[in-house]
Amino acid sequence: MIRRRQTRSLLLCASMLPVLLFSGAARADETAPARDPKQPVNEAYTAKIKKYTTAPVFTSPLVDYLPASKNVPAPDTVLGDISGAPGILPYAEDVYKYMRLLAKASPRVRVFSIGTTEEGREMIAVAVSSEENLKHLDENRARLAKLADPRTIKLDDAEADRIVAQSTPIYYITGTIHSPETGAPTALMELAYRLAVDDSPYIREIRDGVITLITPVVEVDGRDRMVDLYRWHLAHPKDFYPPLIYWGKYVAHDNNRDAMGVTLKLTENVLNTYVGWKAQVLHDLHESVPYLYDNTAGDGPFNAWVDPILTDEWEMIGWRNVADMTKFGMPGVFTHGVFDTWSPGYLMFIAAMHNGISRLYETFGNGGADTEERTLDPQEYSRTWWRQNPPFPKTLWSQRDNNNYEETGLLTSLHFFNENKRLFLKNFYLKSKRSITKPTEEGPAAYVLPADDPRLELQTELLQVLQKQKVEISRATSPFTVTLPAKKHKKSRKKDDSKDAEEKDNESISREFPAGSVIIRMDQPYSRIADALLDHQYWSPDDPQKTPYDDTGWTFGELFNVKVFRVTDPKVLEAAMEPVNEVRPAGGVQGEGTIFAINNSAEPALATLRYKLRDASMEAAEEPFESGGKKFNRGSLIIRGVARSDFDRAANETGLHATALTAAPSVKTHPVRAARVAFVHTWLSTQTEGWWRIALDNLKIPYDYISTQVVAKTADLNAKYDVILFPPVGYNSSTTAIINGMPMNWGNPLPWKNTTETPNLVGKNDSTDDMRPGLGWNGVAHLQSFVAKGGVLLTATDTSRFALSIGLADSVTLGTSQKMNIVGSVLGARLVDAASPIAYGYDEKLSVYCDNGPIFTLSSIAGGRGFRRLGGHSASRPTGRGTVDDPDFTVGRSGTEAPEEPTSELWEYPQVSEEQKRNGLRVIPPADRARVILRYANNKDLLVSGLLEGGDEIAEHPAVLDVPAGQGHVVLFSINPVYRGETRGTYSLVLNTILNFDNLNAGRTIIEK
Ligand SMILES: [Zn+2]
Predict the structure, then answer these.
(1) Secondary structure (DSSP) of 305-337
(2) Which helix (H) or strand (E) holds 214?
């Protein structure tokens, strides 16, 4: 291992030499970074910069002074002290107030509102440039729009050169997406001031040559909570302060993993701003690494869909940035590092996927504005080839130091970008052009989503994501035929495999798609993002990168359970088609009659409909049936007691297709009631469950959001709830942590409440007097009693481990893994019990999101120890006479053949032996064993997208289990079915559980063995 990494590092070093030669050295005639001696300095402000900077090396000639201005207010006007002063952390509102004061005082600053957050707070973008540039924003944008969409100039390079020469590029900076990373807003306030006021030639060149666009606070809801907490900490300096459990309304750190699904408002607002302004760069500011880690030029593997022109730009800008700051004598500035550039989920990747340049800084923050002595880990201060000037092992560090690094990095970046803006603008054009020539240059020509997909509502949801990503969508106006490559079969490695008949399958096939099919053309400027989302991913287990930074697979067609065809045949582009301007759900009702039937294709909107038509009677068919000339799957809904006009509207809004019938079909049914749902969270972490909450809210499924502390206090949960969802806590939280919460034997209570000191903490979420207590043993008893008395408890990943730990499923144990490594991958799964209501609407094959299990193993014996059951049956026999299939013999004795060993599949219960049945008090009766709904595919078919290593340890094991417990059920997920807005194809496994909560045993056959 070690050798491989060393070899690789050396290779990279060598390959970077030309880049360093180009980018490391400033041209002799480049403007020096120095202040204008003729411009007066704001002496008081400058003195404080010096005072709050803890060591002279932590600043630069660009930021160690503040130019004075008679009419433009400096940040202290609003802050009461300078940017980066100890003890000062402004609310978003104060940051905006300052930016608007700037705009009022200077014609070089303008403020734009770019949307609101989930909690209704405003997001802004501040443009800073010369007065001349700001006067002509629209003309400039029209020029940039031509570079962004070269079809408008017929891909004419000479015309592009003319436009490049006239255009001013846009460099977009975003701050504080991560709420505990607190420094960016004050740095960006001061940066805006400097860019507007400073007359030094270095800054003037930036102002005249570039439009700097700034969103000082991306996660506005989280910022205000963080400032609340910091103020609470200042008011109670001797107390421990509560950890920031909520950032935005829904998710915390994962707000920087939403750039694929665009589920959050902040992503949508930044994306609209980036694309709307036709910006060239998106530079996102973070804080976690000393002192400035520019992960623009990250480690491998790089995302396969980005243009190599961009990866060159990363190296160029990143290494030059390090060089510039090193020359200022600032320690601890480096690039490359350990960040891989594979996943396109990061906010900055909006630029990478839309023909721009993505950048990200990690500077060093103290999580607030206290000045603190910071001690680093050896791996943080060690000297490596990519960090020749590492940070100090120990130092006093201030928010001002952090602001100095952020501003210096940004100013040198802006200057270098301006010096080379013709190159970067031309590259912007070239990347856009190469996106358009994709069908002929590298393929595919298009993706096709057929009109006969049984899941048109989910197809619509997928298209809506693409539309948020600004992808152009077309719809075929008549049927069309294209040639598709046949599925490739791997050649058998066995030499003796003579029957290579499968090779014949490798011929391509032609396929007709019906009118109405959706065509995502790849000859469009934003083909790159569509291709990256719809294609499959492969991360080799042999990749030198052993610690993927994030998910390794995400294929949207698979995770949405929607049919997507990758078409390389250029003929697809000649099909008759029209543009789709707005993708909308298109449901409706066909036929006449007062009974309505809706086919069940596992579309989440079925649950929306149940809660929307609260008074209607709904039933689920337990078997497939035919009625009104249509075929209906098992689980299809039969609805009565609702007026046609109401039903028409509901079907339309939900995008569901219903058939009106004059008589009810004769098929066995059970009622589908609107279950009363509790949604349980801990006070340890709310991130992973946040993705479940946003999914339910978007589907308009009501629930009570309660904490484990409320469960602990509620003895009779059945009186209030039918279903308790306990989504993953995250970070593989242990059962002990869930039960015990945070340490209680010392320290002070940690309130999460709205008070005059903390007016923003709660928002629309939950509150408590003390975050520390967990579920407790009372809570455990209440959950056990809830299930025993008929309730349904649904858990996933770490909460499934929890459910098993508290003895809710004797017939399931946790397998141990030795080499399994599944890092956010898409895996194949297979339906085991199609008659279970949890499986309603699903086909035999399904793709699921998995992040290292857990591995469920079935046991027919209560208290049975979890042991490893591997796929594939052992072919070995003891050493002896004969061939492998022959029985052995014993000399001098006639043979007694052993009874045949019973075999079972990994998703089946092992047969109970006669020996085990003797006084079999631990033998679990078949009716009390878990019902296996879904299992992982066999090892050969397990990987759909991403990284899979040691897959045999989980292959064929159960993925979703319905465990009878007392009168109720525990439904255990090994997969995470609701995740980042990306796994909509598996949402219905959860929703089916909710809708059929009191009939989960429907269709169950119990095999006595
Ligand atoms: Zn961050």
Answers:
(1) TS-HHHHHHHHHHHHHHHHHHHHTT-SSEEEST
(2) strand 211-215
Q: Which residues pair with 850 in a beta bridge?
A: 825
How crowded is residue 877: how many other Cβ atoms within 10 Å of its Cβ?
13
Q: Calculate how far, in angstroms, residue 78's C-alpha sits from the geometric centre of ligand 1.
A: 26
DSSP state of 728: -
User: From the CA of 338, how far away is ligand 1's center (Å)?
Assistant: 15
Distance 549 CA to ligand 1 centre (A): 13
Ligand 1 centroid vs 248 CA: distance in angstroms? 14
Centroid of ligand 1 to alpha carbon of 253 (angstroms)? 7
Confidence of residue 506 (pLDDT cuts 50, 70, 90): low
Sole residue written with tokens 């909308």:
584
- Give residue 182 CA to ligand 1 midpoint distance, Å: 10
pTM over 0.85, yes/no: yes
Contact predicate 678/666, CB 8 Å: no
Q: Which residue has the tokens 């149940």?
A: 610
Query: CA-CA distances (angstroms) from residue 682 to 229, 296, 313, 685, 719?
Result: 19, 35, 44, 6, 22
CA distance 110 to 135: 10
> How far does residue 739's CA lie from ligand 1's centre (Å)?
29
Q: Which two tokens stand for residue 685?
A: 């972490």
Q: How do residues 240-266 score in pLDDT, each as one tens digit?
A: 999 999 999 999 999 999 999 999 999
As a whole number of angstroms, the distance between CA 830 and CA 851 comes to 18
In this predicted structure, what is the pLDDT of residue 227? 98
What pLDDT band is residue 139 in, cutting at 50, 70 and 90? Answer: very high
| Cα dihedral 82→87→93→97 (10° resolution) | -20
Neighbour-count burial of 370, counting CB atoms closer than 10 A to its CB (0-12 exposed, 13-18 middle, 19+ buried)? middle
- How far is the centre of ligand 1, averaged over its atoms, from the C-alpha of 361 (Å)? 9
Predicted confidence (pLDDT) at residue 426 exceeds the cutoff of 60: yes
Distance between Cα 330 and ligand 1 center (Å): 22
Per DSSP, what are the bridge partners of residue 447?
520, 566
CA separation for the pair 192, 66 (Å, rounded): 12
Separation of 301 CA from ligand 1 center, angstroms?
A: 21
pLDDT tens digits, one per residue of 774-786: 999 999 999 999 9
